[in-house]
Every structure is written in structure tokens, then in C-alpha cells.
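Q: ChrR Cupin-like domain-containing protein, please. Structure only.
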Amino acid sequence: MINIPFQAIDWSQVPKVEYKGETGTAYWQTLQFEGLRIRMVEYSAGYLADHWCKKGHIVHCLEGEFVSELQGGTEFKLSKGMTYIVSDELSTHRSVTKDGVMLMIIDGDFLR
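A: Structure for ChrR Cupin-like domain-containing protein:
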């Protein structure tokens, strides 16, 4: 069990780390706890992930829209206010956005 004391998070104080996609750029602000990672992630316009991911996530779209592509060809379009959830190893997916998007992504041991 993870014990996290109450805390308010000022995301403007969490450093942004840049990750290049196949095209575009992702900017991550990350809080890491034992077995739990919480991120604010911004994908620039024209972003396409540089890899296929098998990790489980809870992904909530805060602004904009994006497509989560599954390796088998299925696509899910998510826009502001929408969320997707998947456990580890249950789908191989990647993100793509035309105009950019801001997401909150939560993942960790509980999705195994």
C-alpha cells in the first residue's frame, strides 16, 4: 500500500522535461512516488510518439484532442474531458495529435 500524505501540487513549480517524438515534442512534468507516477504531459502540434507503448495508464485529456492508436489499427479520438484506461500488456498503443494536447497521465503498479 502506498501512503502519500496530503499535499497540494503547484504544477508551475514542477520542472518540464522535453522528449522528442517521431515528430513533434512532448513535455513532461512528473511526480514520482513508490509504485505511482503522476504526470502533466503536453504534446506539441504534429506530435507522433516515437514508440509503441505496452504500459498501463489512466489518461485524462485536459485541453485539445489526440488519437490513441492501437497497434492493430483501431483508433480512439479523445478530446477535452475524456479519459481512457488500460492495464499493462493489454494493448500496444501510441499517441498522435494534430493541434497539440494537454493530458494528465497516471500509471503505476496498480495497473499490472
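A: Brief note, in case it's useful. The mean pLDDT is 96.
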